């Protein structure tokens, strides 16, 4: 039987490839973005109690009311605006599901979606499965700042969606309030939907504040904003996230969500509702928690031949390895894993057209100090 692939450019994700390579060679895995430290004790206790209380069957399709109300209250606390918990908040099986649903809810065959490169690797496959085309606009290769004039230049009558991501994966760069004003000006007078990937929203450093689309009235009226409990609460394996969108857009989103996964892990929803309400200090202190890790890891990297780039937000550190090797990034990351026992992620899979001569790799510092120390000891031998 012949099978014609719908995703001819897609193979095994680079994160799976590098994690498998790390396991095969006993490498310290700083590639895939998952913490190796515990989930908050209150959250684990709440999950256990939820299961013992019998919350083990299907949840409401949109998410349990207590969690949607907690998300709305948290949004008001963080961004000065509260979505309607009944019509504008939907709980999803991770941020990746939310991104997929948002694209398939509004994007049709033959339309275009503008993405800013480098971008997370789940974006384009979802666009292609919708029969649409991803239009790639490169960020500045040194600062990862957007060129809004370049974005304007690719907007056509076929443009259905613009996707943004802040704090940015893989660079950690952040959009400012002025950037959001630029986005609003570009989209004004169009029917273009904005998809804002804000999964690292609470991991921001140096006294900065995350500029959320939810705090921008003109943008939130046309946006799907995606968040991740996995990133905020160190439990990426639970695969729980949510989206906030205006009611009409949210209704279309829920149609796809309903026939994709229908609902999300029920006991975790009860646990997150309790955690958000009773321990807001966790997400409010997340930036300081990770900044300490960033600063310690950066100081250690300065004792190696790798050059760390600035990290305004998120939990990834880009390093320039050009003083170590002239290999391309895929070859370098394989060599680093196999020969030196540290797994990193190359940047080229995040691009449609990687910048010529770019020598950057991504390291994750969402790790225990012992894990980072072990990696540094090996990197010092380069």
| Number of E-type strands | 13
Largest sheet: 7 strands, mixed
Q: In terms of structural class, how would the helical and strand content be classed?
A: alpha/beta
- Rg, nearest Å: 20 Å
Percent range of helical residues: 40-55%
Shape: globular
Distance between the termini: 49 Å
Task: Describe this protein's structure.
41% of the residues lie in helices and 15% in strands. With 382 residues, the chain is α/β, with parallel strands linked by helices. It folds into two domains: 14-39 and 284-379, Aspartate Aminotransferase, domain 1 (Alpha-Beta Complex), CATH 3.90.1150; 41-280, Type I PLP-dependent aspartate aminotransferase-like (Major domain) (Aspartate Aminotransferase, domain 2, 3-Layer(aba) Sandwich), CATH 3.40.640. It has a seven-stranded mixed sheet with strand order 2-8-7-6-5-3-4, with helices on both faces. A hairpin with a 7-residue loop joins strand 9 (307-308) and strand 10 (316-320). The longest helix has 16 residues, at 286-301. It starts with 13 loop residues before the first helix and ends with a helix. The model has no long low-confidence stretch (mean pLDDT 96).
């Amino acid at each position: 039987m012949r099978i014609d692939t719908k995703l001819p450019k897609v193979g095994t994700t680079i994160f799976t490839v590098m994690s498998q390579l790390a396991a095969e060679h006993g490498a310290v895995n700083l590639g895939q973005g998952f913490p190796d430290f515990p989930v908050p004790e209150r959250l684990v206790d709440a999950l256990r109690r939820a299961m013992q209380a019998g919350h083990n069957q299907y949840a409401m399709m949109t998410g349990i009311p207590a969690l949607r109300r907690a998300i709305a209250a948290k949004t008001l606390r963080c961004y000065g605006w509260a979505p309607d918990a009944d019509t504008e908040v939907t709980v999803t099986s991770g941020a990746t599901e939310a991104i997929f649903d948002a694209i398939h809810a509004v994007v049709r065959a033959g339309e275009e979606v503008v993405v800013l490169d480098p971008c997370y690797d789940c974006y384009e496959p979802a666009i292609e499965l919708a029969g649409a085309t991803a239009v790639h606009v490169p960020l500045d290769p040194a600062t990862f700042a957007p060129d809004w004039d370049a974005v304007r230049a690719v907007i056509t009558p076929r443009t259905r969606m613009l996707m943004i991501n802040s704090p940015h994966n893989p660079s950690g760069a952040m959009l400012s309030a002025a950037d959001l004003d630029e986005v609003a000006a570009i989209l004004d007078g169009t029917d273009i939907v904005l998809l804002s990937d804000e999964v690292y929203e609470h991991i921001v450093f140096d006294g900065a504040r995350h500029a959320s689309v939810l705090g921008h009235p003109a943008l939130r009226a046309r946006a799907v904003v995606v968040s991740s409990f996995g990133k905020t609460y160190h439990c990426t394996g639970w695969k729980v996230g949510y989206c906030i969108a205006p009611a009409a857009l949210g209704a279309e989103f829920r149609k796809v969500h309903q026939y994709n996964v229908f609902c999300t892990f029920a006991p975790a929803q009860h646990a997150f509702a309790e955690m958000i309400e009773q321990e807001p200090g966790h997400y409010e202190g997340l930036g300081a928690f990770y900044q300490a890790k960033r600063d310690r890891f950066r100081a250690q990297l300065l004792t190696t031949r790798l050059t760390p780039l600035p990290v305004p937000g998120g939990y990834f550190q880009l390093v320039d390895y050009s003083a170590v090797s002239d290999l391309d990034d895929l070859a370098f990351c394989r060599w680093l894993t196999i020969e030196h026992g540290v797994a990193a992620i190359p940047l080229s899979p995040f691009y449609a057209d990687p910048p010529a001569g770019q020598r950057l790799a991504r390291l994750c510092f969402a790790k225990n100090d012992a894990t980072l120390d072990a990696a540094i000891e090996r990197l010092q031998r380069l």
